[in-house]
Specification:
It is a single chain. The chain has 11 helices and no strands. The chain has helices at about 15-35, 45-50, 55-60, 65-70, 75-80, 90-105, 110-120, 125-150, 155-175, 185-195, 195-200. The longest helix is centred in the last third of the chain and has 26 residues, at about 125-150.
Length: about 200
Amino acid sequence: MVRFALTGRPPLGLRERKKIKLRRSVRAEALRLFAAQGYDETTVEQIADAADISTTTFYRYFPTKEDTVLDDEYDSLVEQCLGSETSASLFAMVMAAVTAVAAAVEAERETALARLRLFATVPALKARQGAEGSGTRDLYARLLSEHSGRPVDDFALRITAAALTAAMLEATNRWSDGSGRESLVTLMNEAVTVLEPLIVAL
């Protein structure tokens, strides 16, 4: 299990850990069924049955079937890393955040690759992925604003946030295209290094 030291962040309580465990269990069953019988052919009822939960419980954790593929903790991890009080430079903080995300993805390699294959082949998921990407961009914009002192609608800051989101996606797609043979941490670090002038200028 990959662990990251996050300054000022208390460890998760038992209740929250149980919720995360259940979410991951349901996601694992959903991905198994999608691979075995197809995304469109798999129902919420089948996923709930495989995970040994009721459909009511399923919907408490995942609003739609799509969310079993889309939902993850990566944006939360970025927020924890960049939300920590630190004397490090903004570039060093961004690099640490994307490294943490890449390491977390690699720690769940088969799950991550299965999700990425679905994004590439299921139109509904591809469309939702684009919307989720906008949310990630806005998250970066907010966090960069907090640490740079620039307003969240600053043009250079918005460009940098968009570039970061696109760079991470490109690194992830390259990793997926190579079936995870390359190091995602290395790819992410290379992607962010290309953007160093933009980040340092904030």
